[in-house]
C-alpha cells in the first residue's frame, strides 16, 4: 500500500486558487476568479434557471463571487459535479469552487463538452442548476480533462479518503512538474488546517503537496 505523507497548513484569511504544480500559467488569474470565473458569455451564451429550463441569453456573465469559508461537504461537492456534468451534453466537470450568488452560497463548476467550456452554477446542496453559460473561448484545461481517465468525482473521492471528515475547499485539473495531468484538491481538515492533494488523472494515485 502506498504511504502518503500529508502536510497540514493553516487556513489563510482569504483563500485563493491553488497554485499550479509547475510554472505553467494557470487557466485563470486570481483577478479573474474574484470576478467570478474565466469565461464570459457572449451574445450567443445561454443560461438556465434549472436543468432543461432555458432563460433569456444575456450580454454578460451573471454576477457571482468567490467566497472563503471552511469548505463544503464532500457529498455535496460530488453531487454538484454530477449535476453540472448532466446539465451539458457529454459534460465533463474539471473545476469546482464555492461562490456567492445574490447572497446565497453556490458551487461554481466548469464543464467541458465537445471542446467547449461551460460554467454551471449549482445550488449549495449540489442538487439543482441555478444557471449556466458558455465561455467565449475554452481554456487549456478543456484539453486536459479530455485526456483524463479519472473523472472529477472519482478524484475527489480518492483525495477525501486520505482524511475522512474533511470538507472540500476547491479542486481543479492541472499539470504537474513532469507534464502529467493531475487533479489538484484542496481539503479543509476538521481542525481548520488545509490539505493539498494531487490525484493522478490516469491512475488515481495520490501524492501530497
Automatic annotation (TrEMBL):
Chain residue ranges for the region called Disordered: 1-22
Record protein name field: PepSY domain-containing protein
Species this protein is from: Mycobacteroides abscessus subsp. bolletii 50594
Amino acid at each position: 500500500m502506498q504511504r502518503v505523507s500529508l502536510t497540514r497548513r493553516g487556513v489563510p484569511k482569504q483563500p485563493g486558487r491553488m497554485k499550479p504544480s509547475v510554472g505553467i500559467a494557470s487557466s485563470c488569474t486570481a483577478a479573474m476568479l474574484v470576478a467570478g470565473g474565466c469565461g464570459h458569455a457572449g451574445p450567443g451564451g445561454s443560461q438556465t434557471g434549472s436543468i432543461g429550463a432555458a432563460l433569456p441569453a444575456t450580454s454578460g456573465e451573471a454576477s457571482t463571487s468567490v467566497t472563503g469559508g471552511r469548505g463544503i461537504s464532500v457529498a455535496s461537492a460530488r453531487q454538484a459535479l454530477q449535476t453540472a456534468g448532466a446539465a451539458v451534453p457529454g459534460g465533463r466537470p474539471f473545476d469546482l469552487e464555492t461562490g456567492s450568488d445574490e447572497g446565497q452560497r453556490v458551487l461554481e463548476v466548469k464543464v467541458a463538452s465537445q471542446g467547449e467550456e461551460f460554467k454551471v452554477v449549482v445550488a449549495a446542496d449540489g442538487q439543482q442548476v441555478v444557471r449556466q453559460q458558455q465561455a467565449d473561448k475554452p481554456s487549456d484545461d478543456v484539453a486536459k480533462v479530455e485526456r483524463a481517465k479519472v473523472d472529477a468525482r472519482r478524484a475527489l473521492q480518492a483525495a477525501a479518503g486520505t482524511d475522512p471528515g474533511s470538507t472540500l475547499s476547491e479542486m481543479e485539473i492541472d499539470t504537474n512538474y513532469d507534464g502529467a495531468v493531475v487533479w489538484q484538491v484542496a481539503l479543509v481538515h476538521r481542525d481548520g488546517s488545509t490539505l493539498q492533494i494531487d490525484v493522478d488523472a490516469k491512475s488515481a494515485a495520490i501524492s501530497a503537496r
